[in-house]
Amino acid sequence: MTTARGTTERSAPGTPGTPDKPDKLDDPVFAERYRAMSARDARFDGQFITGVHSTGIYCRPSCPAVAPKPSNVTFYLTAAAAHEAGLRACKRCLPDAVPGSPEWNMRDDLAARAMRLIADGTVEREGVPGLAHRLGYTPRHLGRVLVAELGAGPLALARAHRAQTARLLLAGTDLPITDVAFAAGFTSVRQFNETMADIYRTTPGDIRAAATGRPVMRRQAGEPADASLSLRLPARAPFDGAALFSFLTARSIAGVETGGDGTYARAIALPHGAATVRLTLGGTEAAPHVLCDATLSDVADLAPLVARVRRLLDLDADAQAIDEALSDDPALAASVAAAPGRRVPGAVDAEEILFRALIGQQVSVAGARTALARLTAALGEPIDLGGFTRLFPTAETIAQHGHEVLRGPVKRIEAIVRTAEALASGELVIDVGESREELEARLVALPGIGPWTAGYVAMRVLGSPDILLTSDLVIRQGAARLGLPAEARALAAYGARWAPWRSYAGMHLWRAASA
Fold first, then answer.
1. What backbone torsions phi and psi does residue 364 show, to the nearest 5 degrees?
2. What is the Cα–Cα distance from 509 to 477, expressed in whole angstroms?
3. Angle between the 154-172 and 122-135 helix axes, to the nearest 10 degrees?
4. Distance between CA atoms of 36 and 200, rounded to whole angstroms?
5. Over the chain, what is the mean pLDDT?
6. Is-above-0.85 flag for pTM?
């Protein structure tokens, strides 16, 4: 069972997080995780953390060290919970250099929504009160829930996320260490040094030297805020990155996006300014990753940039579990075998996805690209960064000038402009902190937005894994090609067997339609 400290323990008397219970292996959850840890199964890296109280460290499940005794182990859902228990990160296996947990997309409760916003840097920008306000609760109630569910409060969770971002920068860039501190979200160099020493038991300079295999680079701080960085983002295997890049490239908007030959690149509006990313597939079949070459107007946006790219590419999905579940249906087994690790494309900009869905309704992909390119050329903010010339237009700009640029049926144009007005005024809010039910309800309440649009936006913005768009013509065509029901209600009834992975089943139906 999962205790009120976000750990896997038995409920016998004793202090949570301490190795004083002799019957841990009687707990089926603990036993399953202990078997995965003993087998050094990399599939579970990022899904839970192994705390070893005899050594005072926490590790990834695949750590090559000798397996500790069950009595010395506590499993945690977050690194922050391990920090709160007084453990430090293992220097051998680097437990935070792994894909994130897929649980925050699978779950739609308060804790999962908070984790999505924390990863996006909300605490650094708005503080805990801002995070709580976005979620619709008081800071005190939010703190109680997060401690109960995850073993740490919002400040501790954000602190752990800042430390992980800093380690990523130290290991993967030559950015001056002072700039690393502020780019990761720390308010002072002293706070940065103390946190890194507390979590990693070493200095930022030593982290860089160990990662690069060379002496610490001593460059002068105070350089311009603009920065070009190269990062490696790990993905959970298997990973069909080529199909994902093809999906994004086929829908790319001139001036904003481009792709081809195993790459995808685009411009992104971030909290402190514009950024561009160029993504390239890398790694091996067993340990895939994405190379991310980024140019940022302000390095303080690095954490939200990484979080949004990871969500765009669905890098944290438990692809092996998804493929195993979908393969149980003979109708999908061949598709899964031919394209293992299929991903559901996410979003780097929630509002952009909504406008893409509205403009792309009942038109071809090529037609939607043309309309979106025209809209962006007319209303997008001009930039000169990383070879891109435009950002996608803001809701405010579309609300003011959409009637002048948009073409098509009057009702559809009115729906798009009315949605832009709702977003601009704050009447409608779309971000990763929303629940699927609330987001879909708010969307369908607006004129011109139906279940398909609401479901598509929830799937891409929230990463919801269990949405089957049965009203989508292409999905129904793919279903027919696989010998499945092609009528919406019948397909929905049949697709119930694919839960909780219906979004991924839909990707295989889209693939079948285009085969």
1. -70, 165
2. 8
3. 150
4. 24
5. 91
6. yes
Which residue numbers are catalytic?
59, 472
Stretch 400-406: mean pLDDT, rounded?
Answer: 96
Q: What is the DSSP letter of 441?
A: H
Residues sharing a CB contact under 8 Å with residue 446, sequence separation 6 or more, in sequence order = 415, 418, 419, 422, 428
Distance in angstroms (rounded) separating the CA atoms of residues 1 and 59: 20
How far is residue 38's CA from residue 1's CA, in Å, rounded to a whole number?
19
Helix (H, G, I), strand (E, B) or coil at 283: strand
Q: CA 404: distance to chain centroid?
A: 35
Looking at residue 455, its pLDDT comes to 97
- With a cut of 90, say whether residue 331 has pLDDT above it: yes
Which candidate, 128, 118, 27, places its Cα nearest to that of 79? 118
Quote the CA–CA distance of 207 and 91 in Å, as a whole number.
9
**Helix, coil or strand: residue 291:** strand
Alpha carbons 152 and 190: distance in angstroms, whole number: 23
- HSE (side-chain half, CA atoms, 13 Å) at 10: 16
Q: Which residue from 241, 431, 251, 419 is spatially nearest to 339, judged by alpha carbons?
A: 241
From CA 296, how far away is CA 291, in angstroms rounded?
Answer: 16
Residue 17's pLDDT is what?
45
Q: Is pLDDT above 50 for 224? A: no
Query: For the chain, how many residues are written?
Result: 515
Residue 251, classified by CB atoms within 10 Å of its CB into exposed (0-12), middle (13-18) or buried (19+), is: middle
Place of tokens 């339609």: 513
Sorting pLDDT into bands at 50, 70 and 90, what band is 85?
very high
Euclidean distance between the first and the last CA atom of the chain, given in angstroms as a whole number: 44
Please give, one letter per residue, the 3-state secondary structure of 233-276.
EECCCCCCHHHHHHHHHHCCCCCCEEEECCEEEEEEEECCEEEE
The reported pLDDT for the residue numbered 326 is 98
Q: Which amino acid is at 427?
A: E
CA 515, chain centre distance (Å): 29
What residue type is assigned to position 373 of the chain?
A: A
Q: Are 416 and 358 in contact (CB under 8 A)?
A: yes
Instruction: Find, among 180, 211, 212, the residue nearest to 196 by Cα.
Output: 180
Task: Kindly list the distances between the CA atom of residue 244 and the CA atoms of 51, 56, 259, 315, in Å, as whole numbers in the listed order.
Answer: 35, 40, 11, 11
Q: pLDDT band for position 99 (50/70/90)?
A: confident
Specify the amino acid at residue 47.
Q
Q: Can you give the three-state secondary structure of 54-92, one letter per residue?
A: CCCEEECCCCCCCCCCHHHEEEECCHHHHHHCCCEECCC
Structural element, H or E, at residue 197: helix 189-200
